[in-house]
Amino acid sequence: MNKTLFVVLAVLFSNMVLADEYPSEETVRFALNCMHQLGGQSDENLYACICRYDNIRANMIYTEYEEAVTYERNKAMPGEKGGMFRNNKRGENFYEQLKEIRKNALAQCPVAKRIELDRSKVKNSAEN
Questions:
Q1: Is the pTM of this model over 0.85?
Q2: Is residue 86 pLDDT above 90, yes or no?
């Protein structure tokens, strides 16, 4: 009996922990979409996007994030189906939290631009 109870509790606890972990698929999707919005795949964009994603993960558990993104995606849906999302105060609250987290992440995670120097101009200016 005790062994069965332990197994049941272990399964329940592991599912609770997993419910709040961000799936790998979401991590990749976020990074790719973010880099696309920043102009394409580059190391600079990847670092900025992962920094932003880490900020979201640090400030919002996955189930809340998922609800916020679902609200964001579907709130503009017309008709009755959209009404289910527009009238969802819980989703709206999570969405407002997500917007604030994103705003802070933008400030904390700037996109660094690589500057290529024309070495001949640098050499000529050093000689003058």
A1: no
A2: no
